[in-house]
Design a protein that fits this description.
Blueprint (H helix, E strand, L loop, with lengths): L7 E5 L4 H12 L3 E6 L2 H13 L3 E6 L5 H15 L4 E4 L14 H29 L2 E6 L3 H4 L5 H21 L4 E8 L2 E2 L1 H4 L3 H10 L6 E2 H12 L10 E4 L6
Parallel strand pairs: 1-2, 1-4, 2-3, 4-5, 5-6, 6-9, 7-8
Helix pairs in contact: 1-9, 3-4, 4-6
């Protein structure tokens, strides 16, 4: 397994689901994990569990849609820990509606958190990583950013935007030994999918060639690889983790 001892990893949306799994997997492999989210109480639970299992974690309250907030958080972390070696832009929300029923606020809020939040993270950590002449940025997009999905125009657009942002940032930062990649999960067992009815779940499973919904850890281990030295020559890529749902 990759050895991330001495590395500082900043994970947004770390309080639940994929972000929580990424935080735990990175901590298990030696990283000091900065768990960031708007909800401190949930973050404290994640950090406590990491520490109980012998890992190292700190908590940062953060609204990713606010550039100043992100920059202040990065400054605080670098002052305390000395660096940020890996950024995982995972924070995301949904406000699902058909376009005819979708409000402008529903559109704007999803773009602000999902897409602008990624931009804010990249912009905030870039000076730190450029100074160190190394770094890894991993953006969590989605299969619907590749395929689209009825009732999710705002979410799909934000996730497709993350793909374009990833590829552009990769070209800008490659000369400084900073890689920028994206992971596109398919249907993953999280709090959002736990509430699905049996009929909806059955329909989803019929779409997935591997016949099962993925686990958050499936995404976390891909992120771990992309953060490792073994992935040093990979940048500007989108890696799908979807059980064959979209190829």
């Amino acid at each position: 397994m990759p050895d991330l001892n001495g590395k500082v990893v900043f994970v947004t949306g770390a309080s639940k689901g994929i972000g929580r799994a990424i935080s735990e997997v990175f901590a298990t492999n030696g990283a000091t994990v900065v768990c960031a989210s708007r909800t401190v109480a949930d973050l404290e639970i994640v950090a406590h569990n990491i520490k109980e299992n012998g890992g190292t974690a700190i908590v940062q309250q953060l609204d990713v849609s606010n550039m100043k907030d992100f920059q202040n958080s990065v400054k605080k972390v670098t002052n305390e820990l000395g660096s940020i070696d890996v950024l995982v832009n995972n924070a995301g929300i949904t406000k699902d509606k058909l376009i005819l029923r979708m409000s402008e606020d529903d559109w704007d809020l999803v773009q602000d958190v999902n897409l602008k939040g990624c931009f804010n993270g990249i912009k905030a950590v870039t000076p730190v990583m450029m100074k160190a002449r190394k770094g890894r940025i991993i953006n969590i997009t989605s299969v619907v950013g590749l395929t689209g999905n009825a009732g999710q125009a705002n979410y799909a657009a934000s996730k497709a935007g993350i793909i374009g942002l990833t590829k552009s940032a990769a070209k800008e930062l490659a000369s400084r030994n900073i890689s920028v990649n994206a992971i596109a999960p398919g249907y993953i067992e999280t709090e959002m999918t736990e509430g699905l009815s049996e009929s909806v779940r059955s329909d989803l499973l019929n779409q997935i060639p591997m016949g099962t919904i993925g686990k958050s850890e499936d995404v976390a281990h891909v992120a771990l690889f992309l953060a490792s030295d073994e992935a040093g020559y990979i940048t500007g890529q989108v890696i799908s983790v979807n059980g064959g749902l979209h190829t």
